[in-house]
Amino acid sequence: MISLFGLIMVLGIVVDDAIVVGEAIYVHRQRGDGPLRAAVEGVSEVGMPVITAVITTIVAFLPLAYIKGTMGKFIGILPVVVIACLVISLVECLFLLPAHLSHLPDPNGKKGRRKSFRNLAARGLELFVARIYTPFLTQALRWRYVSLCTAISVLMLAIGLVRGGIVKFEAFPELDGFILTANVEFPNGTPPDVTRQAMNHIEAALMEVNDKVKTGSGDPLVVNRMVLCGLGVGEDPGFGSHLGGMYAILLPSERRGIHSKEIEVMWEEAVGTVPGAKSLTIAGMSAGPPGAPIEVWIQGHDMEKILAAADDLMARLRQFDGVYQVRSDFSPGKNELRLALKPEARALGLTVNDLARQVYAGYYGEEAVRLQRGRDDIRVRVRYTAEERSRVSDFEQVRIRTPDGHEVPLLSVADIRFAPGYSAITRTDGMRRVAVSADVDSHRANANEILEKLAGEFFPGLQTDYPGLYIALQGEKKKMRESFSSLIRGFPLALIGIFIIIATMFRSYVQPFVIMFTVPFGIIGAILGHMLLGYNLSLLSVFGMVALTGVVVNDAIVLIERVNENLAEGMPFVEAIQNGGARRFRAIILTTLSTVGGLLPLITEQDMQAKFLIPMALALAAGVAFATLLTLVLIPSLLVILNDFRRLTWRMIHGVWPAPEAVEPARKRREGRLSDEAVAAPEPAAEVLPVESRQPDAESASRTG
Question: Domain 334-422 adopts which CATH fold?
Answer without folding.
Answer: 3.30.2090
